[in-house]
Design goal:
Blueprint: E1 2-6, H1 11-21, E2 27-30, H2 41-51, E3 55-58, H3 65-70, H4 72-81, H5 83-93, E4 96-102, H6 125-138, E5 143-148, E6 151-152, H7 159-169, E7 174-177, E8 185-186, H8 187-199, E9 205-208, H9 218-232, E10 241-244, H10 266-272
Parallel strand pairs: 1-2, 1-3, 3-4, 4-5, 5-9, 6-8, 7-10
Bound molecules: NADP nicotinamide-adenine-dinucleotide phosphate.
NADP nicotinamide-adenine-dinucleotide phosphate (NAP) binds next to helix 1 and strand 4.
């Protein structure tokens, strides 16, 4: 099976390459942003025509949620408008397009896990641009959209991945947000599920993939990290952790975020017969 990955220098793209490296039957070609700008239609068409992959995994995205409020044009170009030409290039090559999307397509007003059937209603530019991208991919007959959330691994450059270092180095207690509830997703678990999906020959559909366990806040995640470090290293000195509730997502200059965007991954678990791990299980690899 030949797989082409875009955005290969990013957090998920890096992990997809690592997971593929251990697989005999996968020939992976990975393009970082410098090697393939996904907003360059002609370059995308050339790369896909030259490689003739079975699957294209698009992990390239405008992922800076606050910056998307300011750079709306760029966010829509990268998260939405480049996807129709990418799907057209896939169609010519007979490739399936696997596109990664987000829980931020939801408004957060539910209090039970979002399923694929729930209506979307993005409350920030990033979420709106990702939703438009989903629609472009899903209108292609061989388009797959995987919604995920709070991806973390050693290769992530986000707050969840930074928590072990902050706990070890900070002298003052860490103040950590405790009102936004979400589902952390350990990137290697997601990458492995993508390969199961491709090996099974799935060619279309909308699926949620996150770790299980009902989600958590950043504060709860940090407490779990602290407890796991302490269990491994009794007597270790770590910074304290204090919760703060942002309450309203309305923070001047920053994007609004859904307060609750836990997703159910039951549909993909049933389809692929996956036993999806709990969100805490990836923490062992972070510390
Ligand atoms: N991280 C999360 O918590 C999270 C949550 C939900 C959904 N997602 C989705 O998951 C996917 C992967 O996210 P991630 O965490 O791996 O994000 P990431 O680390 O920010 O990776 C995105 C990659 O896209 C690249 N890129 C930017 N512009 C590009 C262009 N014009 N052409 C080609 N590549 C370009 C970036 O390169 P530069 O670094 O050089 O800009 C970066 O390497 C994205 O679709 C994202 O929306 C992520």
């Amino acid at each position: 099976m030949k797989v082409l990955v875009t955005g290969a220098g990013g957090g998920l793209g890096t992990v997809v390459q690592q997971v593929a490296a251990g697989m005999d039957k996968v020939h992976l070609v990975a393009y970082s942003r410098a090697e393939l700008d996904v907003t360059d239609e002609k370059a995308v068409a050339r790369a896909i025509a030259a490689q003739m992959p079975d699957y294209v995994i698009n992990t390239a995205a405008f992922t800076h949620v606050d910056q998307a409020e300011i750079q709306q044009e760029e966010a829509f170009l990268l998260n939405a408008r480049c996807l129709e030409p990418m799907a057209a290039a896939c169609q010519k090559a007979g490739a399936v397009l696997v596109h990664i999307s987000t829980d931020y397509v939801f408004d957060g007003t539910k209090d039970t896990p979002y399923t694929e059937e729930d209506p979307t209603n993005p409350i920030n530019v990033y979420g709106a641009s990702k939703r438009e991208g989903e629609l472009a991919v899903l209108s292609y007959e061989k388009g797959i959209v995987i919604r995920t959330s709070w991806i973390y691994s050693l290769h992530s450059k986000n707050f969840l991945a930074a928590i072990p270092r902050l706990l070890r180095s900070n002298k003052e207690p860490l103040r950590i947000e405790h009102s936004q509830k979400n589902s952390p997703t350990y990137a290697p678990h997601l990458a492995e599920a993508l390969f199961v999906l491709m090996h099974r020959g799935i060619t279309n559909g909308l699926y949620h993939y996150t770790n299980t366990g009902g989600g958590c806040t950043r504060y709860t995640f940090a407490c779990a990290v602290r407890d796991k470090i302490r269990a491994k290293e009794p007597g270790v000195v770590l910074a304290g952790i204090k919760p703060f509730e942002s309450g309203t997502p309305d923070r001047p200059g920053l994007a609004q975020r859904p307060l609750y965007s836990v997703m159910s991954a039951q549909k993909i678990a049933d389809l692929l017969e996956l036993d999806i791990p709990h969100w805490q299980s990836g923490i062992d690899f972070l510390i």
